[in-house]
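PROTEIN DATA CARD
Card holder: 3-methyl-2-oxobutanoate hydroxymethyltransferase
Chain length: 265
Origin: Niabella yanshanensis
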Amino acid sequence: VKRITTNTLMMMKQAGEKISMLTAYDYSFARIIDSAGIDVILVGDSASNVMAGHETTLPITLDQMIYHASSVIRGVQRCLVVVDLPFGTYQSNSEIALASAIRIMKETGAHAIKLEGGEEAIESIKKIVSAGIPVIGHLGLTPQSIYKFGTYAVRAKEEAEAAKLKEDAKLLEEAGCFATVLEKIPAQLAKEVTESIHIPVIGIGAGKHCDGQVLVMHDMLGINTEFKPKFLRQYLNIFEQATEAVKSYVNDVKTNDFPNEKEQY
Ligand code: KIV
Ligand code: NA
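Structure generated from the sequence above:
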C-alpha cells in the first residue's frame, strides 16, 4: 500500500481532492478506519472526553497521549497519523514544546503532531518544524482554551476575531505548518482562509469550502450520544445497537441459552 504523506495532502489541495480525517485512539478502531480508506487519523486530545470521560481536554497527559498513539500506529498501514500535543506540554515554552513533540515521534512512531493556537504558538511551531517534525495548526474554537472562551459557541463571528484568525492562519503557513484545522467558525470565513493560504485547511464545523473535514469518531459513529452539535453528521448509532446487544447477552446468560451445545468443548 502507498502511504499518505504530508506531501500527498498538499497535492490533494492543489488537485481539489477533499481530505478525509477522523480521530482514533486505539488499535482496533484504527484498523477499521485505516482499512476503510481514511487519509488521516488524528489521535486527538478529545481522548480526554470520549475515552476517559473528562468534561474537557485539559486533564489528559503526554504519557496517556503516547499510549493512545502507539496503539493507533500498530493498527495502521496506509493513512497519515497525527497526534495532538496535550494541554500544558507546549504552551509558551518552545524548548518544552520540542521535547514533547520528540517524545511523541520517538515513542509512538506517529508521523506528525498538532497543536492549538496562532501567533502565541509560532515560536514553538518553528522549533518543532526545524527538528524535522511535521506540524498541523488548530485555530477557531480551540478546546484547550475553553476556560478563556467560557463557551463552546461558534468563534470568529465578529470582525476583529475573524481578522485575527486570518492573520494567524498566514502565520501558521509561514512558520512551516503543513496543514491547519479550523474548528467551529463561519463557513464564509473558513472559505476565505482556505483560499488565502497554500496549505490544506481541515474543517470541523467550518463548512464545505475547506480542503478536508475531520470529525471525532465516537460522535460520528454514535458511540458518544451526549454531543450533538449542528455540524455533526451521525452515521451510526452504536450506543443503541451495543446496548441492545449487551441486553441480549445478559438475557442469554440469565436464561442459560448461552452457551449452547455448539459453543462448548
Ligand atoms: O482532539 C480532537 O479530536 C481534535 C479535532 C476535533 C480536530 O482536535
Ligand atoms: Na484536539
